[in-house]
Write a structure and sequence with these properties.
13 strands, alpha/beta
Length: 368
């Protein structure tokens, strides 16, 4: 039996035991929980919800669950939020969460199975999106809200709609302060970060395209900094076989990566977590969309005029799936096929260097 089984057993037993003495909701919302198990990009996209909760509950203690690697990004408490580590494959994180005092209100985002965790943590009232695939996930959900099913809406705005109240102010510099990070040698300025890694090979751009983009940007006076995750060093090597530019692949913590991206004149990345980090630090960011749904990932209302551009060919014939966290939404167009189902990411290969350069030019920044 593995750690995920241990986590599930701990949470289920505590949730069932607590259900016998579960307290009714009161008017007070002194302690608010946001529970989930999302990847970095989706976690950062919860910021509109956090800002809305703070705007409407100025004195509340707001707690966000996050992967242990992402928790340091929240060390300076943006919107007064504390982040606590949670990873289903580490039952110790679940045990620590169950030591927290109970919560008055909880929002469950993405997979409704984490309503069981919210219940185990003593949440009096649990709000989640409707339509998850199994009724067992909703046993402890008190309030279900529908996704926006008609008009294309960003994921961040849909999540913020879980909470009642006035919309928060538009995101601005200074609302999320940089975390502390171990020193590292930065590139010379001005520089562009080219993040070539991704959660799946189907989101990776052709190495020859990255190489050409790097050459074109270098000709404009920008230094190039390669970026990728741990284990993706070989991806950078394919893009820069001669090692002409410094590579930070696998060398930086997320806090260090924050500082690398924040100091850049430009970030270009596939639709992966680092692209969303670029939005948080307000670095001009171009995101390459292949399998992903660009309308889901746009600025929306909260991010306002953040310097972000999507490069995408839309429609694309095989970007034809309409599910978001197992809920069918008619306007969504995604592809979640695995590499065994899709031998070649034609949607990514179809993106040209010229399209990326046009997106960069639209920022109208003299350094670009």
């Amino acid at each position: 039996m593995g750690e995920r089984f241990n986590t599930r057993a701990i949470v289920v037993s505590r949730a069932l035991a607590g259900s016998l003495a579960r307290r009714s909701r009161t008017a007070a919302n002194d302690r608010i929980l946001v529970a989930h198990n999302l990847l970095l990009g989706d976690t950062l996209s919860l910021t509109p919800l956090l800002a809305k909760l703070r705007a409407n509950h100025p004195a509340a203690q707001i707690t966000l669950l996050a992967s242990p690697a992402a928790v340091p990004l929240y060390e300076r408490h943006p919107y007064g939020v504390q982040a606590l580590p949670f990873r289903p494959s580490d039952s110790g994180t679940a045990r620590a969460l169950l030591e927290e005092p109970p919560f008055d209100l909880a929002y469950v985002v993405g997979d409704n199975r984490y309503s069981w965790l919210a219940a185990a943590m003593g949440a009096r009232h649990i709000v989640a999106h409707a339509g998850d695939t199994s009724w067992t996930k909703d046993i402890f959900v008190d309030e279900r809200r529908e996704y926006e099913a008609v008009q294309p809406t960003t994921w961040g705005d849909m999540v913020a709609a879980l909470a009642d109240g006035l919309a928060p102010p538009t995101y601005a510099r200074g609302q999320w302060l940089a975390p502390a990070a171990e020193p590292f040698d930065p590139p010379r300025k001005p520089y562009a970060v080219l993040h070539v890694g991704a959660s799946t090979p189907l989101k990776q751009w052709l190495p020859a395209r990255w190489r050409e983009l790097a050459a074109r940007l270098e000709s404009r006076g920008l230094a190039i900094a390669w970026s990728a995750g741990r284990g993706e060093e070989s991806v950078v090597a394919e893009c820069d076989p001669e090692g002409r530019h410094p590579s930070y692949a696998g060398r930086l913590s997320l806090a260090q990566l924050w500082h690398l991206v924040a100091g850049a004149a430009l970030l270009v990345a596939p639709d992966t977590g680092v692209a969303y980090l670029g939005r948080v630090v307000l670095t001009p960011t171009v995101t390459l969309f292949g399998p992903g749904c660009a309308p889901l990932c746009g600025n929306g209302e909260f991010w306002g005029d953040a310097p972000w551009r999507a490069v995408v060919i839309d429609p694309f014939e095989c970007r034809d799936q309409r599910l978001l966290f197992r809920r069918r939404i008619e306007w969504v167009r995604r592809c979640t096929r695995s590499p065994t189902e899709c031998a070649e990411p034609r949607c990514m290969h179809a993106l040209s260097v010229e399209a990326v350069l046009e997106a960069i030019a639209s920022f109208r920044r003299p350094e670009l």
